[in-house]
C-alpha cells in the first residue's frame, strides 16, 4: 500500500492562495492549472479550498494573503519609480 503524502500547513495555505489567484472556483481550468503546478490531486485541492478535509489554518492563509498583497504593492511602487 502506498504511503499517503503529507502536506504542511504552509504548503496547503499557499495552494489555497494559488487557487484564489487563479480564479477558482469561477474560472474554468483554474483547479487543473494549480493541480499541475503543485502536483496535488484535483480532489485534494478542492477539499482544502472548501475546508472539507485537512484545510490550511485560516489564520495562516490570511497572513500569507496579506504578505502577498504587501509584496505586490512594493513591486508596483518600485515599477512606478
Protein described:
The structure is a single chain. This protein is mainly α. The protein has helices spanning 9-22, 30-38, 42-49, 58-80. Helix 1 packs antiparallel against helix 2 and helix 1 (9-22) packs across helix 4. The longest helix has 23 residues, at 58-80. The protein is globular and about 55 Å long. The N and C termini lie far apart (57 Å).
Largest sheet: none
Give the SSE string: HHHH
**Strands, total number:** 0
Into which percentage range does the β-strand content fall? under 5%
Note the overall shape: globular
* Tally of separate helices: 4
Radius of gyration: 14 Å
Stretches where pLDDT is under 50 for at least 5 consecutive residues are: none
User: How much is the average pLDDT?
Assistant: 94
Distance between the termini: 57 Å
Structural class: mainly alpha
Helix content: 55-70%
Quick rundown:
The protein has 81 residues and is an all-alpha fold. The chain has helices spanning 9-22, 30-38, 42-49, 58-80.
Provide keyphrases for this structure.
81 residues; mainly alpha; 4 helices; globular
Give me the secondary-structure topology.
Layout: H1 9-22, H2 30-38, H3 42-49, H4 58-80
Amino acid at each position: 500500500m502506498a504511503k499517503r503524502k503529507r502536506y504542511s500547513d504552509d504548503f496547503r495555505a499557499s495552494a489555497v492562495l494559488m487557487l484564489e489567484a487563479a480564479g477558482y472556483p469561477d474560472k474554468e481550468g483554474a483547479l487543473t492549472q494549480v493541480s499541475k503546478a503543485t502536483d496535488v490531486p484535483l480532489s485534494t485541492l478542492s477539499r482544502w479550498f472548501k475546508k472539507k478535509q485537512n484545510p490550511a489554518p485560516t489564520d495562516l492563509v490570511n497572513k500569507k494573503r496579506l504578505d502577498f498583497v504587501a509584496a505586490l504593492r512594493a513591486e508596483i511602487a518600485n515599477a512606478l519609480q
